[in-house]
Amino acid sequence: MIAPQDFTSALASFATGVTVVTVSEGRDDIGATVSSFASVSLDPPMLLIGVSAESYLCEVLHRRPGWAVTVLSTAQRALAGRFAAEGRPSARLLLGGQPHHRGRRSEALIIEEGVAALECETRLRIPAGDHVLFVAEVTNVDYITREDPLIRVNRRYR
């Protein structure tokens, strides 16, 4: 049996990009920091995210097929921490004064000044232990910049 802390420590040594996933539901906007993010396919363009099955974000993603993912820049470290909070955070409150706009396809909040922003539509949900993998088709690339991406390694942002 692998001890959970050993598994977590081993994975913490692997550098990963930091994203914020946002989804609009009615009059509210939900968002959370997600570092389980990977490309899946070029044709059609697809990616996947892994979300805690117990999170409110997961609950909303089961109901709403359209969402957005922003790859954060090194200048957005504080945003990563704010969106990592548990509960039912309102994305608009967590953004503070950070520039943002609505996606053309998903209507989710797009956080500006990041590295890239992609709008997605869920195609497949896969239960995976204590997480759910959402495989999605990218329906719009909102922007791409030359900013340095925020990464997380050894439990620290860099």
TrEMBL record:
It comes from the Bacteria. Keywords: Oxidoreductase. Residues 11-158 form the Flavin reductase like domain. One of its GO terms (molecular function) is FMN binding. GO terms for biological process: pyrimidine nucleobase catabolic process. The keyword Signal does not apply. This is Flavin reductase (DIM6/NTAB) family NADH-FMN oxidoreductase RutF. It comes from Actinocorallia herbida.
